[in-house]
């Protein structure tokens, strides 16, 4: 009896060990299959990222360490001399200052007007649907059409602003030759282009707000300004944070309107960093300096985005 019991125990132990081995083998097989399917689905995306993002980025960093000829071929290794010459150049520093003025102006106005329009359009009043369509319509306008539209408005001879100024006997401003006015005109046109996206995203956030909370605050006698600052803003803060990051990055990348409206002038007043990269690379053939400028611009955007995530995200209420 004792021997039979030992044999049964040994058989049970063998069965348990075999089942454990089988489960472990199945797990390994599933893991291998998961890795295969993960690579299968991610492969095309990774290939595109490598070809169009990572390789150009590494190539740009590499070119920034050399002097190049007109064909973009490396000639002499200079290390960080391209960066030093840029950061000590009065022209580049002026372009950097103009870029920050432009980015701050565009970001602040886009977010402020987007909030104002989204708050207005979210109210259920007669004709609000028409205004929602008008406010978001700039998303369907191309950059070239927008540039022509605003060039006509700012034209000192036949522009709408000049016609209005002449009617009221006001001085006619020359938006194309005054450096300060040229910057303002580019900021206004860029805000107009970006406003449709900011409005749509913020409007969707306003539409998702709970009406019961507003009814409770209205019953308690809370004023509209206090309700907006202490109830609405915290509730839409994740969306507002997202819009602020996208607007900041897109402002640094603005090129089309500047190229078509001012071409960096007058007197380099609107010669932003992106436009200067274009001039050095494709007009002057100085690919090494343009590469260094691209790396610096990338670092600036990365630092500002990190600061936003570091400090502004703390005020976001999820």
Structure description:
- Strand 1 and strand 2 form a beta hairpin.
- The protein contains twelve helices and two strands.
- The longest helix has 62 residues.
- The radius of gyration is 30 Å and the shape is globular.
- It has 318 residues and is mainly alpha-helical.
Report the average pLDDT across residues.
82
Q: What is the oligomer described by this structure?
A: single chain
- The ordered H/E elements are HEEHHHHHHHHHHH
| Low-confidence spans | none
Sequence-ordered SSE layout with sheet pairings:
Blueprint: H1 2-63, E1 66-68, E2 74-77, H2 81-87, H3 90-121, H4 128-136, H5 143-154, H6 160-167, H7 179-207, H8 211-219, H9 224-252, H10 256-261, H11 273-283, H12 287-312
Antiparallel strand pairs: 1-2
Question: Summed up, what is this model?
Answer:
The protein is built from twelve helices and two strands; from the N terminus they run H-E-E-H-H-H-H-H-H-H-H-H-H-H. It is mainly α and 318 residues long. Helix 11 packs antiparallel against helix 12.
Which features would summarize this protein structure in a list?
single chain, 318 residues, mainly alpha, two-stranded antiparallel ribbon, 12 helices, 75% helix, globular
């Amino acid at each position: 009896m004792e021997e039979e019991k030992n044999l049964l125990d040994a058989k049970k132990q063998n069965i348990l060990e075999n089942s454990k081995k089988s489960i472990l083998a199945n797990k390994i097989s599933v893991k291998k299959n998961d890795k295969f399917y993960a690579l299968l689905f991610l492969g095309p995306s990774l290939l595109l990222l490598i070809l169009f993002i990572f390789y150009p980025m590494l190539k740009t960093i590499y070119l920034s360490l050399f002097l190049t000829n007109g064909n973009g071929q490396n000639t002499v290794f200079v290390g960080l001399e391209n960066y030093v010459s840029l950061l000590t150049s009065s022209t580049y520093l002026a372009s950097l200052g103009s870029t920050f003025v432009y980015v701050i102006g565009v970001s602040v106005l886009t977010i402020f007007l987007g909030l104002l329009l989204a708050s207005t359009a979210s109210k259920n009043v007669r004709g609000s649907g028409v205004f929602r369509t008008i406010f978001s319509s700039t998303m369907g306008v191309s950059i070239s059409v927008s540039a022509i539209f605003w060039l006509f408005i700012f034209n000192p001879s036949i522009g709408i602003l000049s016609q209005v100024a002449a009617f009221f006997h006001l001085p006619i401003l020359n938006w194309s030759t005054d450096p300060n006015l040229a910057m303002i005109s580019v900021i206004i046109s860029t805000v107009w282009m970006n406003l449709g996206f900011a409005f749509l995203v913020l409007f969707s956030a306003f539409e998702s707000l709970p009406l019961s909370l507003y009814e409770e605050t209205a019953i308690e006698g809370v004023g509209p300004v206090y309700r907006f600052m202490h109830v609405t803003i915290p509730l839409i803060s994740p969306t507002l944070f997202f819009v602020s990051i996208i607007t900041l990055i897109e402002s640094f990348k603005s090129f089309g309107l500047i190229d078509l409206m001012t071409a960096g002038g007058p007197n380099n007043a609107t010669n932003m960093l992106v436009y200067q990269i274009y001039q050095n690379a494709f007009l002057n053939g100085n690919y090494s300096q343009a590469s260094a400028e691209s790396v610096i611009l990338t670092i600036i955007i990365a630092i500002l985005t990190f600061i936003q995530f570091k400090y502004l995200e703390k005020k976001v209420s999820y």
